[in-house]
Amino acid sequence: MIHRSALMFRSKHLPSCFFATHRANFYTSVAPDNGESGLYGFGVLKTAKGFRRFVDEAIERSGELISYISGMPSSIEIVQAMDEISDTVCSVVDSAELCRNTHPDREFVEEANRAAMKIHEYLHFLNTNHSLYNAVIKAEQDGLLQTKEAWRAAHSLRIDFEKGGIHLPRDKLERINQLNVNIAHLCREFSENIVNDPSYVDIFPASRIPKCIQHLLRPISRPMNGTPSEPLWSRGGIKEKGFRITTDPGTLSSVLQWTPDAEVRKQSYIQGNSAPRANLSVLDKLIASRHELAQIMGYKSYAEFAVHPNMASSPDVVMSFLLDLSTIVRPKADEEFKTIRDFKLKRCDQRNEDLEPWDESYFTGMMKSSAYNLNSSVVASYFPLSQCIEGLKVLVESLFGATFYSIPLTAGESWHPDVLKMVLHHPEEGDLGYLYLDLYSREGKYPGCAHFAIKGGRRISETDYQLPVVALVCNFSASTGSSTPRLNHWEVETLFHEFGHALHSLLSRTDYQHFSGTRVVLDLAETPANLFEYYAWDYRVLRTFARHYSTGEVIPEKLVESMKGAKKMFAATELQRQVFYALIDQTLFGEQSFSPRDTISVVGDLKRQHTSWKHVEGTHWHTRFNHLLNYGAGYYSYLYAKCFAASIWKEVCSEDPLSLATGSALRTKFLQHGGAKEPSDLLKELVGDDMLRNYNNGIIPNISNLCEEMELMEHAKQKSIL
């Protein structure tokens, strides 16, 4: 995923893009100032307290630029100065965000938190500054901007200001500001509740837990008479050994996949999907606050407010797309459901046994292994992390004629000994950008995988270009008895997904950082990441780097074909799940009834309408669905991206995925432009007009390539949707 800072003043995504090759030769690459040691290459961050000076200097420089803009210089100077304010402030916001999520030193985290709070207060001043707003209107309307990108920047900045309500009467603006503060607090509370209340289940005896996952769990014991559990090291009496399952998403996933004991799976599923209960009320307040904000802004719902700037343009378009997909996928997903149910009945030898939600991972995993003779540890033996990094190097060299190599970190630049710094270098164009890799799991670190911006690319002068700097953060763990992580294939796919975001940033050569890389409309942002997932499945790519950790043997093609076969076995069920998630998101933030809706009932009804799986009464999985925060009413964008990526892969990449010609098309027609061009134009120029279709004043992806890939074409034709 793209980790996005919550700023109105800037576009909501991250850095990327590239000027045409013949232009790049005229620029001197400007790297971060490493003359002084400091975190992320910022000399001011030599100590944790440096964040205080970092904020103060950003505010001081922005103040100078505001004074300059207030004097109404030329339109191009207004746009350039506005972009410098955005770049200055975003450097603080993004650095603080990365630090808060990854730094092991508590003092750095606390100072980053303080910096984030102070700079967000300053953002309120920027977002309500009428001098800046009036200057942007002048730049947009006076017709003197000579490039499309400059005009687009002025237009985008005006829209961003107005999304914050600056054009409204004072009383409404004050309420909008209050609501935005409330929403930020509710989002933070929602996230903190997920971390602080993962819930747990105690299981006795220990033999009920398979050995392959015992290392993930906490050993506990209890007196043989069965009184409440206590630590294993408690003394006195005969103890019965057991395990405490902390039902955070990662641990819960492993328990559901590997545990034969149905009762253990059931307890874990119910407990894990019933926490944190406090988020039910938090979500109710978030929905109400966002709805009120949208109505003040003149929209019928928050979904309408959030979707309007995107390609889809309205919730009606999004819902049409989602309901079409739901209709297409339902028959095959139902077939898969019946197959899983029949397999369970055969294994359990009980004719009346229902298929339960806690059965899915366990039985589908068993069916995949049985059908394709797959062993996850055998697959992982071909993907030591070091070789996977070599695979990323192969991609950039084959596609873009560039090299991707490690360079030394200066003292104080890194936040942990495991961090690597890489440079993307082109033999003719020089350095293109910098990437920090923080790939190993550790306590207190951001729990998922994400792409963080640190610095966006932008033109500084006729000869100087500010290079993009980003971080790729994952949580890979070494398996038992090994010092080096060997990745499951889904982890390899995740690594390539996040690297797709990183390339979108590193190849950035937009004039303005406001458009750099992943700073694009939401329903385009995930497309490069989804595209590069295909590279993690193509044997022509895998054979270049996937080698056995001890023998050096190249991964057998037969094994890769088995992996692909296993992936396809329940592909319709997985697609249906993503459609279901997107429908939850659209419905919760859609038009509201007079009486507040019970979100548990909404989610349960949608599950029954759009899947064959039961909704377990009393559970509320959605209180852990943190995409409702940053991607509120925007989760559909993942499905847009899947459709776009399927078309790009088939039409541009599949014939020769590692050729310079393929890379050149991706770079010059798509990746290098970030948000500086209309997204629909980018997609049409890369693939052709058939890539999308217009519907009800919005844009819907062509779903035929995704349907063909997932063997859903017959269902689509029967429903007359294609």
Description:
- The chain has 722 residues and is α+β, with helices and mostly antiparallel strands.
- Among the domains are: 39-166, Up-down Bundle (Glutathione S-transferase Yfyf (Class Pi), Chain A, domain 2); 198-226 and 236-275, no CATH class; 379-520, Collagenase (Catalytic Domain) (3-Layer(aba) Sandwich).
- It has 28 helices and 14 strands.
- A hairpin with a 2-residue loop joins strand 13 and strand 14.
- The protein is globular.
- It starts with 20 loop residues before the first helix and ends with a helix.
- Its cofactor is Zn(2+).
- GO terms for molecular function: metal ion binding; metalloendopeptidase activity.
Q: What kind of sheet is the major sheet?
A: 5 strands, mixed
What does the overall shape look like? Answer: globular
> Number of helical runs?
28
Residue ranges: pLDDT <50 for 5 or more in a row? 5-29
Q: How large a portion of the residues is in β-strands, by DSSP E?
A: 5-15%
- Rg, nearest Å: 26 Å
Q: Using the coordinates shown, work out and report the CATH topology of the domain at 379-520.
A: Collagenase (Catalytic Domain)
Average pLDDT score? 91
Oligomeric state as shown: single chain
Biggest sheet, strands in spatial order?
Answer: 6-7-8-12-9
Question: Can you say what the CATH homologous superfamily of the domain at 379-520 is?
Answer: Collagenase (Catalytic Domain)
Q: N-to-C terminal Cα separation, in Å?
A: 29 Å
Query: Quick one: how many beta strands?
Result: 14
| CATH class assignment of the domain at 379-520 | Alpha Beta
Second rung of CATH, namely the architecture of the domain at 379-520: 3-Layer(aba) Sandwich
Family: Belongs to the peptidase M3 family.
InterPro entries: M3A_MIP, MetalloPept_cat_dom_sf, Neurolysin/TOP_dom2, Pept_M3A_M3B, Pept_M3A_M3B_dom
Pfam family, one: Peptidase_M3
Protein name: Probable mitochondrial intermediate peptidase, mitochondrial isoform X1
